[in-house]
Amino acid sequence: MIKQQLIRLSKRWQGWLALAIGFAIIFLQARTISSANAHFINSAYVHLTGFDYTGLGSRSYYVILPLTVALAAGSTIAEDKKQHFREMQLSRFPLNKYFASCSASSFIFAGLIAVLPLICEGFFFFSQYSLAPLSRKYELTPINPGGWSAGLFYSHPIVFWLLGLLVVFIFAGLLSQLSLVASAFGLRNGLEVIVPFTVTLTSSILRDFSGFEPLSIPSIMTPTFSNDYPFTVFGLIVYPILILAIVWGGFLVKERNDVLD
Question: Of 100, 102, 98, nearest to 90 (Cα)?
Fold first, then answer.
């Protein structure tokens, strides 16, 4: 059932549009990083999206990500209802299994949509520039030498990059779940797509008012910003738990009430 849902998601125009937006931001990043970084610094790690502060895409990618993953994988249940596909599925599977398959496929597909542009970008820059670790004393180092994961970056930067991709994959998958559970409750006019963006925007507003930087989900997803905050690890653990609780709490409410309107 999960495989069937993944195939279906891969054929939707929304997924291709979300992927195109991701690649467009990556291209914007490559075109707008400072000329000094682009031409005179032989290190891949000062160019990547989320690492290079000078590019327009470096922060934008993580801010827009909640919208793109919701567009790609957040409306399955609403579409099933509209196309009368849900009734056919529920004639073969119990409601909880249907929700589980929709959730798993959405998580996987959204994660892939989020990391594919970053992976392609990585391979491009890795083929053009040096992969040697940077010195902690390097003037334009993208990572705070005192940050929680700086040791890993300065010893094994490729592993740090892969860890960053994993964080993005997980958060992208979880954010798509917020859209998915909203679609299960029948938000009209496709409004479920903006739910994850509203959540992340709220987290950033709370950050601005409180001064507690790790409250911002886009910030803790962005490698350089994430490394600057001493409580990032706390956010990386608490937010996934909180989102999962909301999502599965919502699905449980739908299941127990059997509201299939």
Answer: 98
